[in-house]
Design goal:
Layout: H1 2-17, E1 29-40, E2 43-55, H2 56-66, E3 80-83, E4 90-102, E5 120-122, H3 124-132, E6 143-149, E7 152-158
Parallel strand pairs: 4-7
Antiparallel strand pairs: 1-2, 1-6, 2-3, 2-4, 4-5, 6-7
Length: about 160
């Protein structure tokens, strides 16, 4: 849990450096790839593959520890590094009052409509719609920061990846 806090604090710090205001995260936040949204008995659930997300010096350190044959690289090429040692899925219950913040998604079925808009709030219904539509962009390929309170996901923040 301590490592996750360091990673999340790194996210907050480095995000400010790129020119947008990051969303505050807390100790109940996990980072994951969302593989499936599923309704059961009138309740929405997320199936997700929890990962470890690293940026900055933390990313450089874990990259150098784990990668072989990297040539002259001193860190990950894009400044972040993902560790996914366990691909088991975790099922999370979703709050009816879920807050969803997106960075990039298919807004209107055009490439022009997929521009970056940092921490853009969208409704849960809209999130389900765009997540299911993989024609122009597959949102399951992005990591998400899931804020969990009392065992229920109350916030989803899409992590932009270059």
């Amino acid at each position: 849990m301590t490592i996750m806090m360091v990673v999340l604090l790194t996210f907050i710090t480095s995000a400010s450096a790129v020119g947008y205001e990051p969303v505050p995260v807390d100790k109940e936040t996990v980072t994951a790839y969302i593989s499936k949204l599923e309704h059961k008995d009138g309740q929405l659930f997320i199936q997700a593959d929890d990962i470890q997300w690293y940026e900055g010096e933390a990313a450089n350190k874990i990259f150098l520890e784990r990668e072989q044959d990297i040539g002259d690289l001193e860190g990950p090429p894009d400044g972040y590094y993902i560790v996914n040692d366990n691909e088991d899925l975790t099922t999370y219950k979703v709050s009816d009052n879920l807050e969803v913040l997106m960075q990039i998604y298919d807004r209107d079925g055009t490439y022009e409509g997929m521009d970056i808009n940092w921490n853009e709030p969208i409704s849960l219904d809209k999130f389900q719609e765009v997540f299911a539509n993989t024609e122009m962009m597959d949102l399951s390929q992005f990591p998400y920061h899931l804020t969990i309170q009392d065992g229920v996901v109350i916030r989803i923040v899409q992590q932009f990846i270059p």
